[in-house]
Specification:
The complex is a heterodimer of chains A (337) and B (77).
Chain A (H helix, E strand, L loop, with lengths): L1 H22 L17 E5 L3 E2 L2 E2 L3 E4 H21 L9 H17 L6 H4 L1 H17 L8 E5 L2 H6 L20 E5 L8 H23 L13 H43 L5 H30 L21 H9 L3
Antiparallel strand pairs in A: 1-4, 2-3, 5-6
Helix pairs in contact in A: 2-3, 2-5, 5-9, 7-8, 7-9, 8-9
Chain B lengths: L2 H16 L1 H20 L4 H30 L4
Classes of the chains: A mainly alpha (337), B mainly alpha (77).
Amino acid sequence: MLRNRLLQIIVILLLVGIGLHYGLGIRMSREDIHISARAEPLACIGGERIGEACSAGLPLTNSLVMTIVVDLLLVLVIIFGARNMKLVPRGFQNLVEWVIEGFYNFAIGIDRPNIGKFFPLPATIFLFFLVANMLALIPMVGSVGECVPAAAEATAAAPAAASPSILSGLPGYCGAGNVVIPFLRAPAADLNVTFAFALVAVFTIEFFGVQALGLSYFTRFFNLKEGGLGFFVSIIELISEISRIVSFAFRIFGNIFGGEVILIVMSFLLGYVLPLPFYGFEVFVAFIQSVIFAVLTLVFMSIAVVSHGAHDEHGPTEGPHGETHPEAHGETQASPA
Amino acid sequence: MDVDAARLIGMALAIGLGAIGPGAGIGIVFSGAVQAMGRNPEAEGLIRTYMFLGFALAEALFIFALVFGIMIGFGII
């Protein structure tokens, strides 16, 4: 019943969209595609903004604004959800408990003995990126903004106003030669944010390794006792440890930023219709990438606290029924990328 | 060949070549998951979770190629 009604609405919207696109010619033109790989400053503290960049001073970027919004939202939700908690949850507390408990049960399946120590950081990463990526998919988040003149080299590179966009008469449209600086930008589409999270995650992993094993933790990176092959393997381990930072940062950045670009390009190719399946896919990606970041942090932590010689006796991964899978541990270690 | 043509060719090559490996990898992930579900239907929920983990890890490689392709094509780098 409800599903039929929803399908009817979607089909009617699609037909209206195709009519708008082909019948009336209301569509994006090529010059409406403006992609910026870095976060644009909304204001500059102690400097002046020229075009899209700060001449001097500390830039107050749109992804920073979005990060603060997400942080406030998370803090408020947790405060209101966990204020006067009951043993039998009612109302809003149910939702908060459901989210935390769902991720906790999933994390227990990865590393049961150390979960109390490890859980906070992966849970923070998961909740932050989940909320941030989902909020970034709300329409008008990355598209409504301030209209500023484009930088000089950008206008020189672009072909000079071949055909004026059909949208140009609309109120609030940012004309040719100008670019929009959105007020909000997805935090994961800013490499600074993801790189900061990756640095925090990797340094916490190293910290737990040193805390559990002492200085002998570093023998896995400089192993001089087991001959040439052992030394070679330990150097590879060191390189893969460093490349973890890059792969952590670029994985979520690429997914979210690439998803935004795909939505823009699809809207250009066939507006209103083609972005729909990709939008659904982006919702899936927004969820799965936040899970990936958190779970990989947890898995690397549980690998880091197991000493080098003790790998074969017991792996850190436990199955759902309590039995250990040493081969599963080997697989997670062999795929650091 | 001017720079714009080189950029377009570079973008197409980067995205197209970058899709080969992850495509095969995602196929392997899902085939393994479907086989495991067929043999052990009770573990379907757990297998599905790890299946999506493996899918996202393989897919991230294609996203790298996509992002760098886009950056080349739109002249960002």
